[in-house]
Please model this.
Amino acid sequence: MAVVKPFKGIRPPRDLVEQVESRPYDVLDSEEARAEAGDNEKSLYHIIKPEIDFPVGTSEYDPRVYEKAAENFKMFQDKGWLRQDGEEMYYIYAQTIGENPLGGLQNSVGKTQYGLVVAAAVEDYMNGIIKKHELTRRDKEEDRMKHVRVNNANLEPVFFAYPDNEVLDALVNRITKTAPEYDFVAPIDGFRHRLWLVNKPEDIAVVTETFAAIPYLYIADGHHRSAAAALVGAEKAKQNPNHRGDEEYNYFMAVCFPASQLTILDYNRVVKDLNGMSVEEFLAKLSEKFTVAEKGAEPYRPASLHEFSLYVAGVWYSLKLKEGLVDESNPIGSLDVSISSKFILDDLLGIKDLRSDKRIDFVGGLRGLGELQRRVDNGEMKMALALYPVSMKQIMNIADSGNIMPPKATWFEPKLRSGLVIHKLS
Model:
């Protein structure tokens, strides 16, 4: 059963939150962070992307960069740009999709998802109560571990899902009818972000006790941050000769959302060539496993599982997998990312390894189908393949079965903003 606890969050005063908050460290590069921070000395990028305080070209992995993160984190607290709450509490974080979102969210305008900000147990990560569905890379883990170590804090939350729960829904519905602590629209994504404090003892008890009856939590987004936070916590436990098990380093910060509220977008593919085939030959080969239907010049979106959209030579096509070709009881083999990899990318185009093959690239569904069409029309790519989004139920089934999702399978949106709450490890 899941163990969570309240914590004394470190966060900006209400009048500074829009100057401090930022996008997550891993959705933009150093130069984008430098541009977004501009002359704003209060931007969290000075802590989570501190290479922006060095000359252009300085590696984000330079030891001086990690030291600068800790120096800036201390300075933000000294100047009162970040302050620690005086009592342990939970927080409710709401994200609402704005009026003019990018392509993949145009049908979700006004949708809100409500997450509980908690301290999750390191032990739950280690023993599989917190379930994973992606592989992590050691180099990325080590980078985030250095960042957690040097700051002695989880600067950015990870993104969890939990099975829908009526008790938690009722608590969230009641508290979010009151005025929020923060309420702002982010300039980059146009999403509305709100935060409420859950600081009444009886409400805190409800959250803790209800999660204790939930068998598993699921990492939706942030596998590397989760691994790094848990591994640093385990390190600190080993290094402490007086370790008791209730120290703050035994926990890391997560925002937990009901699974039904989450929006998962398609994660699409663009390929540089047709492996020596003409368009006609490629379509003929596809028709052996798929029912191929021409859809014209306007972008066509897959309408259901096992249907794909192909864009090649100025025309969109629907590709519907013929019956009997996959075992629907296989949680991995029946995924559309697996079907497209096997029957199209591997069998026809000779792309064996999605992680390393330079002939393929990936486009998150937030950019919409127009981005796929643009990259083919400008000659950069020869074809594009749009997939139907993976469902949260599929992700949870895969995690429950101990399997790992194929690469580039999920794209969660909206992303969590960073800097609203920070969790210190002591």
Summary: The mean pLDDT is 94. The two ends are 25 Å apart (CA to CA). The first strand starts at residue 4 and ends at 5. The chain has 13 helices and 21 strands.
